[in-house]
Design brief:
The complex is a heterodimer of chains A (505) and B (318). Chain A contains 21 helices and two strands. By secondary structure, chain A is an all-alpha fold. Chain B has two domains: 181 residues, Bordetella uptake gene, domain 1 (D-Maltodextrin-Binding Protein, domain 2), CATH 3.40.190; 96 residues, Periplasmic binding protein-like II (D-Maltodextrin-Binding Protein, domain 2), CATH 3.40.190. Classes of the chains: A mainly alpha (505), B alpha/beta (318).
Chain lengths: 505, 318
């Protein structure tokens, strides 16, 4: 309970000011498409040069937690996930917003974010020593199977048809191969100079989600006859809180999946939200409603991607090995103040280390307060006239994709992918499985290549990938997931046939 | 005719203006392109060494970091070597041996002939590390085991044709045994695979390995001298009887495009080493566990040429 002794440092005027600034700034940065948590933290590090170590880290901690939640705002209101972590939030959250329940969706999102976030930080505080060595056990073979597990959910993710989902996933896998690959040392599909660096996930995310919407809005003109305008309903905070808490199953699944995936170095919190969403749907009684504005989906996705924040720092704080891109950036923020993470961090720099962790805990609460405060107003975005909204989204999309790497090439890639997606969407394809393919492709490929080299040096490739309890457990999960997909596909087809037979008779 | 007159007039104005600009350079902030993501080691160090640029007696203008990552640095350096201005207001950070190895191995728009070094700020040697519980306590142990078990020793490192890979090739040659290189996406995952026991050994940066030293054994340093500041007890490969020099040491510094006026280059070459030697810079670098090695323009020019020759030979057979 040592962390309680250090709470004093957080509750001073100057610290609270920094925490509030970090949280509000983080929410705004997170809500801007293109500014992922990693970027936000990296941008803030120079500001901490002149602060004292504890306060500098408080700023980073608060900003990190709130940018993760902030990314959900644009996902829900504009259907543009602020970061890959928020893709799953958009699936149901945006449908809710379109039906006029944006305020409720935002409230539920912030409440479940805070619940998941606090859970994750508590895991970080109490279980760090136990989990640190466990996190290291994940080698290339395990990560390969984790990626394959992700591939198995591609088909059922946000698609009417498994085949179309898988096809979109394959396009994503192909896009992920473009560029020069540092592991294989080769250059692939570089038709023009702009593709040398490959397709950045953020540029792809913005293009695939935002551009088709912009085109559709402009297509409709000033008065779109197809567009049904729902009234933006006010939402009661307490009712939303009650609704969130009543989704116990989604919260438990989200929290657990987020924590476990957060711990695995290299898997990336990017897929935590999607995996939790998918699992929650499978175990849910109203799984058919997922994708039609079911708040349970928002709860599962947001609790998972915030629960991931705490555990993703376990390998960094105890072993000085960053497990995620954001953790790598935070390492820089720690080093600049002469703080070396490692087994003795909590003895040598207890005050600073606990201020950092406490600031993330308080950051969750502040994020909840500020988030709920803006939810009602922010939801009115949906009432903005389509031409104006389309222009605003286009500006944000160009700005967001440019700012990731200061590169016009990314803007071009974003536009090309977006226009391509517009046509694909007309044929019933959806962007979520495509993005998942882009994320999972490199994880699967790189870990397979590494595993092959290590396997060849040991007893062979097959024993390396197929033996060991962790491998077998993961393979079992992959098979279960596959069987589930096939069974549910057959069931859906049978129902469809029955329905059409009924209609015919 | 009119067009010609305008062009001539513009030229007449531009030429003397160019001279004047070189004399009181710099009159506005200067940018420094970093070909890696924000938060990485190069970005982190570049921000520290440039933070006092605006001081009197130094540049007198701030240096702004511009990240242009992608393809292991190739995107940023290609852009710099083909598009940057040559007036001294756009500089870039270099990483040797990365950019030289890439210019040999791939079709790049940059090479040591179209870039002008200004000064070097840091040098991060590669070290050979094994897990704390490893049966190897020295390079000799590892070599002996690898002789009996050819191709069984797996060694992690960050990617292909980067400093780690070059150090690996050099070490393998010097040890005279067959080792297996396992490329990773960056130095941190490569170090993680040593800590987690997925590979038997790893080539990594001195600074990162130093931070994880409580769970690692650092058995050799690929440099000409020991590192007195951080790892005084770790012997070099040379000391242990293996012919590995400093060719894989990761040098970081500042460069401009060829065609930059000599006056501007001279001014930068005089000021930058002074800026790197600033007391506040030194303190922050030490805090971050980043080894400083300041070299002037002449020394860097010589080092670039040596690396070009060495790497051309080393990469020829690959």
């Amino acid at each position: 309970m040592e962390f309680l002794d250090h709470f004093g440092a957080v509750f001073t005027w100057s610290s609270m000011l920094i925490l509030c600034a970090g949280t509000i700034g983080g929410l705004l940065l997170g809500a801007t498409p293109g500014l992922s948590p990693t970027m936000a933290v990296a941008l803030l590090i120079p500001f901490t040069f002149h602060m004292d170590p504890a306060q500098g880290l408080m700023l980073l901690g608060a900003a990190y937690t709130s940018t993760v939640a902030g990314g959900a705002v644009s996902a829900i209101l504009l259907n543009i996930p602020g970061a890959p972590a928020n893709i799953a939030t958009a699936l149901d959250g945006n449908v809710m917003a379109r039906k006029g329940a944006g305020a409720r969706a935002l409230q539920i999102c912030f409440i479940s974010s805070a619940i998941g976030g606090v859970l994750g930080i508590l895991v970080l505080i109490f279980l760090t020593p136990v989990l640190a060595s466990w996190a290291l056990k994940f080698g290339p073979s395990h990560l390969f199977w984790v990626a394959i597990l992700g591939v198995t959910i591609i088909g059922t993710l946000d698609s009417k048809s498994v085949v179309k989902g898988l096809l979109a996933g394959c396009i994503g896998l192909w896009i992920a191969m473009i560029g020069s690959d540092s592991i294989q040392g080769v250059e692939r599909f570089i038709f023009t100079e702009e593709l040398e660096g490959g397709v950045h996930i953020i540029a792809a995310l913005i293009g695939l989600f935002a551009i088709p919407q912009v085109i559709e809005m402009l297509e409709g003109g000033r008065k779109d006859p197809r567009r049904t305008v729902f009234e933006v309903r006010r939402a009661n905070v307490w009712r939303s809180a009650l609704e969130t808490v009543s989704k116990v199953r989604a919260l438990v699944i989200g929290g657990t999946v987020g924590t476990v995936i957060g711990l695995i170095p290299g898997a990336g919190g990017q897929i935590a939200g999607l995996v939790a969403y998918d699992q929650s749907r499978r175990f849910s009684r109203n799984s058919a409603k997922y994708g039609t504005g079911e708040s349970e989906g928002v709860v599962a996705a947001e609790s998972a991607n915030n629960a991931m924040v705490g555990p993703s720092l376990v390998p960094l704080l105890t072993l000085s090995v960053p497990g995620s891109p954001t953790a790598a950036v935070l390492l820089g923020g720690l080093l600049i103040h002469g703080i070396f993470p490692g087994p003795d961090l909590f003895q040598k720099h207890a005050a600073v280390a606990f201020s950092f962790i406490n600031s993330m805990l308080i950051g969750q609460i502040l994020m909840l307060v500020f988030g709920l405060a803006i939810a009602g107003l922010a939801a009115k975005v949906i009432e903005v006239k389509p031409p104006i909204l389309a222009s605003a989204i286009l500006v944000l999309a160009v700005f967001g994709s440019y700012s990731v790497q200061n590169s016009m090439a990314d803007v071009a890639i974003m536009l090309v992918l977006g226009i391509g997606m517009y046509f694909l969407a007309r044929y019933g394809f959806s962007p979520a499985p495509l993005v998942l393919g882009i994320i999972l492709g490199p994880i699967a490929e790189h870990n397979y290549v590494q595993g092959r080299i290590i396997g060849e040096a040991q007893d062979g490739i097959a024993p390396y990938f197929l033996t060991g309890w962790l491998n077998i457990l993961l393979i079992a999960l992959v098979l279960l997931s596959l069987v589930y997909s096939i069974v549910s596909e057959i069931r859906v087809k049978r129902q469809e046939r029955a329905a059409s037979a009924e209609a015919a008779s | 005719m009119k067009k010609f007159a305008i062009a001539a007039a513009a030229l007449a104005v531009a030429v003397p203006a160019g001279h004047a600009a070189a004399a009181d350079y710099p009159t506005k902030p200067v940018s420094l392109t970093v070909a890696y993501s924000p938060g990485g080691a190069t970005d982190f160090q570049a921000r520290i060494v440039t933070m006092v640029a605006a001081n009197k007696g130094l540049l007198g203008q701030p240096i702004v970091i511009l990240n242009r990552p992608g393809a292991g640095g190739k995107v940023g350096w290609n852009h710099f070597a083909s598009r940057a201005s040559t007036d001294g207001y756009q500089m870039a950070a270099y990483n040797v041996p990365h950019f030289i190895a890439q210019s040999i191995k791939f079709k790049t728009k940059y090479n040591i002939d179209n870039l002008e070094p200004i000064a070097n700020w840091g040098a991060d040697p590669a070290v050979l590390v094994v897990n704390k519980n490893s049966k190897f306590n020295s390079v000799k142990d590892l070599t002996a085991w690898a002789k009996d078990n050819p191709g069984k020793v797996t060694v992690s490192g960050a990617g292909l044709f980067v400093g780690h890979h070059i150090a690996f090739l050099q070490i393998q040659k010097a040890l005279g045994v067959k080792l297996r290189y396992v490329p990773h996406k960056g130095g941190a995952p490569a170090l993680k695979s040593v800590l987690g026991g997925q590979v038997m050994a790893g080539v990594n940066n001195l600074s990162d390995s130093y931070r994880s030293r409580s769970s690692l054994k650092i058995i050799g340093i690929a440099d000409l001298q020991r590192d007195k500041q951080f790892l005084p007890d770790v012997p070099t490969f040379k000391e242990q009887g293996y012919d590995v020099d400093d060719s894989s040491v990761n040098f970081r510094g500042i460069m401009v495009r060829k065609g930059t006026p000599q006056a501007v280059i001279d001014k930068l070459a005089a000021v930058m080493p002074k800026m790197f030697a600033n007391a506040r810079v030194a303190k922050q670098m030490r805090n971050g566990g980043s080894p400083i090695r300041i070299m002037d323009r002449a020394a860097v020019q010589k080092m670039w040429k040596e690396r070009q020759k060495f790497l051309t030979g080393l990469l020829k057979d690959l």
